[in-house]
Amino acid sequence: MFSARVSEYQGNVMLNMCDAELLGRRVGQGSDDHTMHISEEYYGGEIISREKASKLLRDSSIINMVGEKAVALAVELGVGSRDGARIISDVPFLLIFKM
């Protein structure tokens, strides 16, 4: 399961998506400058299935995703690349901008 928030930004469909179990967690280490909060306000909205997540990944033009399952799904669909992901405290983050 995934948590997703869809919005419109400058005429583009923007998807913020994370592995549902990461919602509300802080990842990182050290000072606040090196941590990230996977917040309900940004990534929350609706708990969705793999099928709906796949459709949203295909249809969105700006994607911000967090989590092993979310990134793996994007890679499997050919929407993203594992090489583009950044790892923070064993949690992958991936930003995608489709042109």
Mean pLDDT: 93
Please state the second-level CATH architecture: 2-Layer Sandwich
Q: Low-confidence segments, ≥5 residues, pLDDT <50?
A: none
Radius of gyration: 13 Å
What characteristics describe this protein?
99 residues; alpha+beta; uncharacterized conserved protein from methanopyrus kandleri fold like; two-stranded antiparallel sheet
In short:
It is built from 3 helices and 8 strands. It has 99 residues and is of the alpha+beta class.
Please provide a written account of the structure.
- The termini are far apart.
- The protein has helices at 40-43, 50-59, 68-77, and strands at 2-9, 12-19, 26-28, 35-37, 46-48, 62-66, 86-88, 91-97.
- The mean pLDDT is 93.
- The protein has three helices and eight strands, in the order ββββαβαβαββ.
- The chain is globular.
- The longest helix has 10 residues, at 50-59.
- Strands 5-1-2-6-8-7 form a six-stranded mixed β-sheet. The chain has a two-stranded antiparallel ribbon with strand order 3-4.
- It has one domain (2-97): uncharacterized conserved protein from methanopyrus kandleri fold like.
- It is of the alpha+beta class.
- Helix 2 crosses helix 3.
